[in-house]
């Protein structure tokens, strides 16, 4: 067996120990004679898997008891619709929400919300290809906005909010897909904090939404499909219908793996060390350049270019041959992108930097 260093933005690298454990349990999960994939989601065995996953996530993130944890399908993209449909149906809601546009995912969420509510873009970094986070200390947030929406780590452009925006007392909703569990979050600062797990936590097809209890509608909402109403899933323990049983199981293992690494504060420290290795090299290199302003650099997604499209293509091809996979940048930025999520070992980042040094010496 030979595994590569996989820098994919998502689905992405998972901890080897977790994959090995899944492989071990594949045919016969703990003596029950079947795989988790073959198990009824209504069985006691499965109930234990999802309960344990939730309990472990709560303890990892320090989720207060007045927040619900929902394991949902439809990916992060489906929450783009669920968020306005639920939050703007609460008693006293005005149906207005303010969005900060820092990249493609924030823009998609904004465009989707605008189909249902009065969504407004109160800041944007589109003028410089989303290479920075706008100053969010005094935005024109509407007095009657129901919430303020951000995409906290921008997977494609490689920026992150190092400080949360001043929402002027409004509810904060954050998409943390590509930084999920890479560092601690103060959950109580958010109304909703959610992420698709396939970037940093698990297999594709599962989104975890952590939602303050009073933001979940009391019952059915006109114009909101049953499946998108958070109440439906909250009342059914995320099992109104068949959930993504396999992804929840794998995530549960990743939660235990993260706890064994020392938890989210320790992960942050490790991720800072990994990112520093790469950014320090980018800052001293004469050939490679990071595309993001230094103060807003993501710890997870690192886009860089040589400035020459042919050379970039050569780099992507040669790095693949050297066992460094998926370094091609997103088509909207070009160049390269290294996603260095939780499960990417520092040895992988070192191997990338060594390869870049060698490539630079040859050109
Ligand atoms: C990948 C990504 C999404 C979309 O996730 P899906 O689960 O594919 O819908 C949304 N937001 C961010 C920040 C992402 O990185």
Can you characterise this structure?
34% of the residues lie in helices and 16% in strands. It has 363 residues and is of the alpha/beta class. Helix 4 links the parallel strand 3 and strand 4. The radius of gyration is 21 Å and the shape is globular. The structure holds pyridoxal-5'-phosphate (PLP). Residues 10, 75-77, 105, 151, 155, 175, 177-178, 196, 199, 207 line the site of pyridoxal-5'-phosphate (PLP).
Keyword list:
7-stranded mixed beta sheet, 14 strands, alpha/beta, binds pyridoxal-5'-phosphate, 363 residues, 9 helices, single chain
Put the structure in a nutshell:
It is built from 9 helices and 14 strands. The chain is of the alpha/beta class and 363 residues long.
Instruction: Name the overall outline.
Output: globular
Range of helix content: 25-40%
Number of strands: 14
Return residue spans where pLDDT drops below 50 for at least 5 consecutive residues: none
Mean pLDDT: 97
* Total of helices: 9
Distance between the termini: 33 Å
Unique ligands: pyridoxal-5'-phosphate
How is the largest sheet built, in terms of strand order? 2-10-9-8-5-3-4
Strand content: 15-25%
Question: Structural class per helix/strand content?
Answer: alpha/beta
Order of helices and strands: EHHEHEHEEEEEEEHHHEEHEEH
- How large is the radius of gyration? 21 Å
Describe the largest sheet: 7 strands, mixed
